[in-house]
Amino acid sequence: KAPFTGVPGTDKERTFIAIKPDGVQRGLIAAIIARFENKGFKLVALKMLWPTKEKAESHYADLATKPFFKGLVAYFSSGPIVAMVWEGKDAIKTGRVLLGATNPAAAVPGTIRGDLAISVGRNICHGSDGPESAVHEIANWFAPEEVSDYPRSLDEWIVSDN
Ligand code: UDP
Ligand code: MG
């Protein structure tokens, strides 16, 4: 059985996607989820939670030396977030494409940040940037029993190498 963090490089690749506190406040939960659903990815975990400072710090541990780290942790723990795990072929890389560039000013229209945000400090969403961070982030926010492994009959209409 595949680990609950997924198997990068396969159809069971999983990525951690979060709607940050500003995305929740702005009423963009449904709009952001729709991008991933409509694309064809499979939602395998979802919950709303209010991050503690400690959990926000462990989530962003690799950015601890950055000058914006303190403000970033305060931002991420400033209200409830929607934490999700999405599964599918190339979910990590393609998830980042759906989000758009980190700075919404550089994010192209058609992406979530390009369409819905203006400022790098309020860029409404998070997505894992690689296989290692996906594993770390999924385990940081979810317990194994909170992630559902389920078949979807339409998968054959979404993925094929023909
Ligand atoms: N961030 C910021 N100022 C910066 C760079 C990043 O406030 O100059 C914030 C921004 O919210 C970003 C988060 O820190 O989403 C994490 O940075 P990262 O470089 O990992 O960007 P991401 O992976 O979210 O695109
Ligand atoms: Mg990042």
From TrEMBL:
Entry annotated with the keyword Kinase: yes
Domain of life: Eukaryota
Positions of the Nucleoside diphosphate kinase-like domain: 12-149
UniProt catalytic activity: a 2'-deoxyribonucleoside 5'-diphosphate + ATP = a 2'-deoxyribonucleoside 5'-triphosphate + ADP
Family: Belongs to the NDK family.
Binding site for ATP: K20, F68, R96, T102, R113, N123
Top enzyme category: transferase
Name of protein: Nucleoside diphosphate kinase
Molecular function in Gene Ontology: ATP binding; nucleoside diphosphate kinase activity
Cofactor(s) the record lists: Mg(2+)
GO biological process: CTP biosynthetic process; GTP biosynthetic process; UTP biosynthetic process
Record's keyword terms, sorted: ATP-binding, Kinase, Nucleotide-binding, Transferase
The enzyme's E.C. designation: 2.7.4.6
Active site positions: H126
